[in-house]
């Protein structure tokens, strides 16, 4: 009985510690949803960019969700580290670094055109929502088998770049 109680107490302590400790690399899902929002739920404006979204000449629409702390913007030759979630315009989430539990790092000139263009508008720490038309995403129809078609919506937080 005494051993069982000791094991129960140890398991409870480990569970509490694991649940209450935030990962310093930004991987804690609770920390990602500190504003109370579900990071996986589609945004209310997933179907189309709202009127207050800005647009580039290429057709990329974007809106800042959180101001950043940096002053410098990444260039296409930089490698970026981001947290992101992507949805189709019908609200289906198709990819998320947050769901995987770790940020994604990649060369900015090796991603879809909408990301290359959009992330150059951001500073470190900023979070933006992008509405990326199909021609700046995977194509209409997609050129890559299994890739989502049409306009895609991404919430992207630029954690760092080098």
* Percent of sequence in beta strands: 25-35%
Overall geometry comes to globular
Estimated helix fraction: 10-25%
Individual helix count: 4
Which runs of at least 5 residues are low in confidence (pLDDT < 50)? 1-34
| Count of the separate structural domains | 1
Tell me the total number of β-strands.
7
The CATH topology name reads Chitinase A, domain 3
Arithmetic mean of pLDDT: 83
Distance between the termini: 56 Å
Can you summarize the main beta sheet?
Answer: 7 strands, antiparallel
Which key features would you list for this structure?
alpha+beta; 162 residues
Account of the protein in words:
The chain is an alpha+beta fold. It has one domain (23-161): Chitinase A, domain 3 (Roll), CATH 3.10.50.40. Helix content is 21%, strand content 26%. The protein is built from four helices and seven strands. It has helices spanning 2-20, 29-32, 97-100, 113-119; strands spanning 54-55, 61-66, 79-88, 93-96, 104-107, 127-132, 152-161. Strands 1, 2, 3, 4, 5, 6 and 7 form a seven-stranded antiparallel beta sheet that branches. The radius of gyration is 19 Å and the shape is globular.
Give me a quick take on this structure:
The chain contains four helices and seven strands, in the order ααββββαβαββ.
Furnish the topology, listing elements before pairings.
Blueprint: H1 2-20, H2 29-32, E1 54-55, E2 61-66, E3 79-88, E4 93-96, H3 97-100, E5 104-107, H4 113-119, E6 127-132, E7 152-161
Antiparallel strand pairs: 1-2, 2-6, 3-4, 3-5, 3-7, 6-7
């Amino acid at each position: 009985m005494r051993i069982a109680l000791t094991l129960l107490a140890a398991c409870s302590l480990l569970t509490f510690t694991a649940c209450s400790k935030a990962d310093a690399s930004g991987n804690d899902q609770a920390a990602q949803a500190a504003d109370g929002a579900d990071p996986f739920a589609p945004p209310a404006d997933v179907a189309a960019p709202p009127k207050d979204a800005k647009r580039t000449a290429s057709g990329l629409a974007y809106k800042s969700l959180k101001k950043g702390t940096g002053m410098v913007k990444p260039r296409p030759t930089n490698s970026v580290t981001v947290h992101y979630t992507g949805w189709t315009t019908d609200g289906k989430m198709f990819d998320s670094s947050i769901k995987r539990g770790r940020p994604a790092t990649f060369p900015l000139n090796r991603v879809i055109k909408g990301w290359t263009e959009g992330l150059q508008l951001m500073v470190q720490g900023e979070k933006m929502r992008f509405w990326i038309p199909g021609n700046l995403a995977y194509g209409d129809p997609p050129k890559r088998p299994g890739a989502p078609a049409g306009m895609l919506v991404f919430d992207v937080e630029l954690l760092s770049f080098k």
